[in-house]
Amino acid sequence: MSVDPDKLQPPSRPELIDFHGVSMTHYFTDNWETVQNFQARPDDILIATYPKAGTTWVSYILDLLYFGQTMPERQTSIPIYERVPFLELFAPPLFSGTDLAEGLSTSPRLIKTHFPVQFVPKSFWEQNCRMVYVARNAKDNMVSYFHFDRMNGVEPDPGDWSNYFQKFMDGKLVFGPWYDHVSGWWKKKQTYSKLHYMFFEDLVEDTGREIDKLCSFLGLSPSAEEKKQITGEVQFDNMKKNDMANYSTIGVMDFKVSPFMRKGKVGDWKNHFTMAQSEQFDEDYRKKMRDPTLQFRTEI
Ligand code: PPS
Q1: Which of 92, 130, 252, 256 could hold 153 in an S-S bridge, CB 3.0 to 4.6 Å?
Q2: Where is the Sulfotransferase domain (predicted)?
Q3: Phi and psi, residue 147, nearest 5°
Q4: Active site residue 26
C-alpha cells in the first residue's frame, strides 16, 4: 500500500475505547485479526515503546546500523515511518502497518509497535525475534505525549494540562497505563532473553555508549568511523531538520501547535508540573511502581 500522508485527513479525533482492558482507539484495533496473525520472521526486529519514549530515535539508529552503508539512498528518500512500519496502525486506504511490513524488502525487517507486551503477535515469540524496548521516565513521557496529542489529529483530544495529568495517572491514554507498559515489558525481560531494554535518559546522556550496547545485543560490529557518523546523525538537532526522520511529511500533524521533534530533553517536566502536581504524582507513582529493580531518572 503506498502512503500519501497529505491525504490522511481524519474527519474527527477518535474516541478512547476499552480494548481487552487497555485504552485504545480504533486506529490500532480495526486490523486486530490481521495484526495478531502477522507472520514474523526470525530476523525481524521489533522496536517497542510506550508512545513518546524514543521510538523514532532508536528506529533511526537501527536503520542506520543495518542499512546506512549498504542503502544510503534510503536516508534521503524514504520517511522513517515507511522504513520502520508501525505494525498496528490501520487507517485505510492510506496506512496499514501490516501491509507496509509485509512489503518491506529489507533483511532484517525493522518493525515498530506501541503494544503492551501481552498484545504482541505470537509469531514474534515463536520466531524468537530480537526486540528492543525503550522506556522513558513517566513525567517527561507524559509531557511529550501531551504535546503530541495536541498536535496530532488522529489522537483523542487531550484537553488541558491538568486534565491530561489526571488521565495519565488513570491510564486513560492510547495504549493504556504507562505504569503497566514499562513494567510488563520489564518483567518479560526475565524470561525472554532476546529483549534489550533501554532508557531514553541513557541515550541522552551518552548516545555512543547506548549504540555500543545495541550493537552487542544485535551482534553488529560497525567501524569506529561508522559509529561516530551514526552518533552524529542521530543527534536531536540533526534529526529535527531531517525531513525523513522528523515526520514533517505527515499531514495529520500540526507542527504549528507543536513539532514532532519538540525538545528531546530530560527534565522538561519541570516546566509543566506544578509543585503540588509533582508531589501528588510521586505519591501515586510509589504505589503503582513496586518493583525496586525498575528505576527511572527524571533528571540527568
Ligand atoms: S512516537 O510518536 O511514539 O513514535 O514518538 P517517539 O519517537 O517515541 O518520541 C518522540 C520524543 O522523542 C524525542 N526525540 C529525541 N530526543 C532526543 N534526541 C533525538 N535524536 C530524538 N529523536 C526524537 C522527540 O523530541 C520527542 O520528545 P519531546 O520531549 O516531545 O521532545
Answers
A1: 252
A2: 42-291
A3: -70, -35
A4: no
Which string of b and e fits 224-242 if b means at least 16 CB within 10 Å?
A: eeebeebbebbeeeebbeb
Give domain status of residue 299, yes or no: no
57 lines ligand 1 (CB under 6 A): yes
Output the CA 126–ligand 1 centroid distance in Å: 30
* Domains identified in the chain, total number: 1
Residue appearing with cell numbers 543495518: 66
Q: Is 49 in the pocket of ligand 1 (CB under 6 A)?
A: yes
Judge whether 3 lies within some domain: no
The range of the structural domain enclosing residue 23 comes to 13-288
User: Residue 2 CA to chain centroid, in angstroms?
Assistant: 22
The residue whose CA has the least distance to atom 12 of ligand 1 is 54
Q: Would residue 232 count as lying in a domain? A: yes
Q: pLDDT tens digits for 128-182?
A: 999 999 999 999 999 999 999 999 999 999 999 999 999 999 999 999 999 999 9
As given in the structure block, the three cell numbers for residue 93 are: 486506504
For residue 170, how many other CB atoms are within 10 A of its CB? 11
From the CA of 6, how far away is ligand 1's center (Å)? 22
What angle (nearest 5°) sits at the alpha carbon of residue 114, between those of residues 109 and 120? 70
With respect to residue 251, please indicate whether it lies within any of the assigned structural domains: yes
Distance from the CA of 261 to the center of ligand 1, in angstroms?
Answer: 6
